[in-house]
Amino acid sequence: MRDPLLHRPAPSDDPSGRFFWQSGEDGVLRFLRCTDCGYWLHPPSSRCPRCLSADVAPQPVSGQATVHTFTVNVQSWTPGQEPYVYAVVEFPEQDGLRLSTNVIGCPVDEVHIGQAVRVTFIHRNDAYYPVFVPEVS
Amino acid sequence: MSDKFEQDAVISGVARSAIGRRLGRSALDLTIDAAVAAIADAGLTREDIDGICTYPGGSADVTFGYAGPPPQEVQDALRLNLTWFQGSAELPGQLGAVVAAMMAVSTGLCRHVLVYRTVTESSAQGGGGRAAVLGSERAHSYGVWSAPFGGTSPVNWLAPVAMRHMHEFGTTREQLGQLAVTFRRHAALDPDGAVFTTPLTLDDYLAARMISTPLCLLDCDVPVDGSTALIVSTAAHAPNTPTGAVRIEAVGTAARGRLSWDQYENLTSMAAQGAAAHLWSRTDLRPADVDLAQLYDGFSILALVWLEALGFCGHGEGGAFLEGGANIALSGRLPLNTNGGQLSGGRLHGYGLIQEAVVQLRHAAGPRQVRDAEVALVSNGGGPIAGALLLTRDR
Ligand SMILES: [Zn+2]
Questions:
Q1: Of the candidates A9, A72, A102, which has its C-beta nearest B139's C-beta?
Q2: Neighbours of A1 (CB within 10 A)
Q3: CB contact, 8 Å: B160 with chain A?
Q4: What is the ipTM for the molecules in this complex?
Q5: Which residues on neighbouring strands pair with residue B44, listed in sequence order?
Q6: Which residue of B has its CA nearest to A81?
Q7: How confident is the model at residue B2 (pLDDT cuts 50, 70, 90)?
């Protein structure tokens, strides 16, 4: 598998996002969720933006997602960089719950809006990067 | 105070410095050129200037040549006596600095505010600044949720908007390309200001190097060095302006919905929608009354998003509006980016657009003048950033 993380900045070490970047250690993707009203939060925040409850905690999602939109980056911003897919994927758990990520594991010109994908993780340094591969039915 | 604070202020002067690729001059040097010329254009002397406002201010990251000098440096260089100054990027779009200046004038804090935006991005990138920043070890701010995945440049954040627009509405690259081709034609009529003036065909556009699908090199604005300055004055000064004042009919500033690049409910309109709605809520004028528009075109797709958000056509109908290019030509229904915009005129980060709108409303645009121009719309920003101004000729 091509390494899509070459030459890229690591995630911030801000404590509020630590659970997210560590979540892949057991192969499960997690977002914060409000215990009171069930709303999913991303990016992380200490209160539920819907009901203002402070009772929010990381909860697993299925890891299934759909490509909402994407681009194939062709410009070689750094030497040796190959075209890669930078995508916004949306999760079935909640309308508008999205993540910017990479789609890997297939030729870049096979990626399309509406495509079913599932999460996989790339472990690099101190973080597990959630990236997505095409779902095989 | 008037019913609307917009009526308390006018734009009394505008000017720009030399604009070009790798001018090798300092940001302060370029800013002084533009400021001195704008003060004279307003019929003022520097003794009259009692305020400064700029986007983004001195605390912004200057690595890319993105930020000009902080207001204090300009104050010192010109030995101005100020009652107020401000520089900030935390505003509803770059034009937020103009709105802040209007507020200062309306409240009586100042009478004549120097507003400027200066970039030296061309020189900075030529000096290797871009690679240096890409190599930073950790992502910060909104980059936290994009940079680790190679959402490296704003083109990576906005190309997905273009892709989604094409998917939902059938918008084509040929339609998007009309923006680049038309703006280049306009730029040729402003040879003293525009960076690229050689003719461009749709075939040239389609053959251009891809950057981030579906956006090619000609969908991206051109980094330049340059400064734009304007003077926001109390409305009482309007009769004393030698070149003519421009009135501000309405401002559009808003922050609604999810202000991130990927979470907004509707990625094909984003913050432009809120700014446009606010602007039209503050005036009796309608889109059909607008004679010309200078819409932010950091990337071509942004001008299309603004066209729709501002109601010049329906949501999703931007492609059809651009088809063939006739609507946006100088003689068209809505002449657009009449000095070449940022795609051909250079990335003055929105301030070249307001300068051109003022020149057009003064009927001083020479060969690119839109006939009988009375009302102009200027928009700034893309994605989660947006602000707009509706300007009218002083009558
Ligand atoms: Zn809640």
A1: A9
A2: 9
A3: yes
A4: 0.96
A5: none
A6: B150
A7: low
